[in-house]
Specification:
single chain; 2-enoyl-CoA Hydratase, Chain A, domain 1; 2 domains; binds acetyl coenzyme *A
Length: 279
């Protein structure tokens, strides 16, 4: 048996529970602002969880009253201002690696569970996750304008993929905060629930995802995200090829099981539930 990987970090906590990997940004004394150390540790976390069977669903959250107060202003601005362009680019690349390059098309389902403060750079991983659930009481803000910068990193691009321009520009330009309910209204998160129910609702969604065929789930999210960026004709070709690839590579032969259980056995209705995977 290969040894289980170690998840011993200073700024991140990783725990496993019934198929869910709980990844907690863990600098509560700094409201979980992303330090250079946290970014490096998070790259390792996403790398290891990708092939850890205990992680069927990846949940990202924050310790204490904050989800994440954005980038650590000391590490990402003040202390690196005098660095060479190459060194700064490297610092930002490490953060971009976990926040979106890896998370955006992560091979496992991802849920951002926004439990509290969520500012600036913290928008990126929330948007990169497949599903985001916020506490009604959470506070979101594009605070960049308040301290004299633009939402950079990749925040403006990320925002434009989920929030309509009217609302996006309003928050980019005013820096006004908004709560979880408003975040759900404008498409920043999938839904918002009272903080007291946040974890329970997240587990509920994770359990639904865990009942699906993981191979098809992986291909479905990747296909959706890439197709969204393509012209129609290219997307049509790509999706049909992706669909064939999914069927061809599916160790579970899900498509055949699904059709068999519906058309022959008449034992379930695909409109209402997933096929039985243990047959
Ligand atoms: N970078 C560096 N340090 C931070 C950050 C941050 N983004 N956020 C909080 N901290 C630190 C504070 O400096 C403070 O440190 P100290 O104890 O050494 O003084 C500690 O965390 C606690 O912060 P408080 O401000 O005392 O906490 P409070 O609960 O009163 O307020 C809030 C929380 C609203 C999140 C506030 O800390 C804040 O406005 N943080 C900055 C949010 C922000 O604008 N982030 C940057 C977005 S832009 C980007 O990401 C590129």
């Amino acid at each position: 048996m290969p040894e289980a990987p170690s998840y011993d970090y200073k700024t991140v906590q990783v725990g496993f529970e019934d198929g869910i990997a709980w990844v907690t940004l863990n600098r509560p004394e700094k409201r979980n602002a992303v330090s250079a150390e946290m970014a490096t540790e998070m790259v390792d976390v996403v790398d290891k969880l990708e092939i850890d069977d205990r992680c069927q669903v990846f949940v990202l959250t924050g310790a204490g009253e904050s989800f994440c107060a954005g980038m650590d202003l000391r590490d990402y601005f003040r202390s690196s201002d005098a660095d060479t362009a190459v060194k700064r680019a490297r610092l930002y690349r490490t953060n971009g690696t976990w926040q979106w390059r890896r998370l955006l098309n992560y091979p496992k389902p991802t849920i951002a569970m926004v439990n509290g403060w969520c500012f600036g750079g913290a928008f990126t991983p929330v948007i990169a996750c497949d599903i985001a659930v916020a506490a009604d009481e959470a506070t979101f803000g594009l605070s960049e304008i308040n301290w004299g910068i633009i939402p950079a990193g990749i925040v403006s691009k990320a925002l434009s993929t989920v929030v309509r321009q009217r609302e996006a520009l309003y928050y980019v330009m005013t820096g006004e905060t908004f709560d979880g309910k408003r975040a759900a209204q404008i498409g920043m998160v999938t839904e918002s629930v009272p903080l007291a129910h946040l974890r329970q609702r997240t587990v509920e969604i994770a359990r639904v995802l865990m009942k699906k065929n993981p191979n098809v789930l992986r291909q479905a999210k990747t296909a959706f995200k890439y197709a969204a960026e393509m012209p129609w004709d290219a997307a049509g070709e790509y999706l049909m090829a992706k669909s064939d690839q999914t069927t061809f590579n599916d160790p579970e032969r899900g498509r055949e099981k699904g059709m068999g259980q519906f058309l022959d056995e008449k034992s379930y209705k695909p409109g209402l539930a997933p096929y039985r995977r243990d047959d």
